[in-house]
Amino acid sequence: MNNPTNPYSAPHQHGIAVSGERAAQVLKNTYMLLGLSLVVATSASWFAMASNIGFVNVWLTIGVYFGLLLATNALRNSAWGILAVFGLTGWLGFTTGPIINMYTQIPGGMEIVTTALAGTAGIFVAMSAIALVTRKDFSFLTNFIMIGVLVAFGASIANIFFAIPALSLAVSAAFVLLSSLLIMWQTSAIIHGGETNYIMATVTLFVSIYNLFMSLLHLLTALSGND
Asked: What's the burial of 156, exposed, middle or buried (CB within 10 Å: 0-12/13-18/19+)?
């Protein structure tokens, strides 16, 4: 089950006057908060795995996710927004724990999880580097990415009811592409002044990483013949 990325982040606005120093500070704060968020998510996931927590109801997962996303958006300009980010990332980590437990129990499951983690890290570094090194403005991708995310998320919801394997694989492949583009797009938005709120930038990047990892897990499992 994939979650859509943050639809509440400020759109990339062309022509905003933001100094290079200001953009660098936003980028630094974003990466710092993203790193802490990954620690929170990993800890919550480990706790769920160690406690052998069962699968969380998918509708509860989605409902709490959107509630925390709305709360983060509302608190994005205050220190409370940081706690909301930790709540959001902790929740996603916690609900992912039982899923990872399931994957590790299939033949070659641990290798699949490790490969998915490595692939996620590699794609994040590569897409971030493209934006940072080329300094290209990728705001032209905004409509394509947002429409693509909404369509892919709608398809993933539909597949909860229809359970079509081919559709599930197509959704995962779409989220790999869209999440990769989102990482590049969000990084570009920061350095070009289209995103000046590091809390919302962190949410976009974290959810992109989350969707990328979960989608790679699904695709790799299917390729291994264990799906």
From this structure: buried
Is 74 part of any domain? yes
Per-residue pLDDT tens over the stretch 176-223: 999 999 999 999 999 998 889 999 999 999 999 999 999 999 999 988
Each residue's pLDDT tens digit, 64-86: 999 999 999 999 999 999 999 99
DSSP for the chain reads: ------TTSPP--TT----HHHHHHHHHHHHHHHHHHHHHHHHHHHHHHHTT--PPPHHHHHHHHHHHHHHHHHTTTSTHHHHHHHHHHHHHHHHHHHHHHHHHTSTTHHHHHHHHHHHHHHHHHHHHHHHHHH----GGGHHHHHHHHHHHHHHHHHHHHH--HHHHHHHHHHHHHHHHHHHHHHHHHHHTTS---HHHHHHHHHHHHHHHHHHHHHHHHHHTT--
Q: Which domain holds residue 149?
A: 20-223
Using one digit for the tens of pLDDT, what is the confidence trace for 194-206? 889 999 999 999 9
Q: Is residue 137 part of a domain?
A: yes
Tally the domains of the chain: 1
Answer whether residue 8 is part of any domain. Answer: no
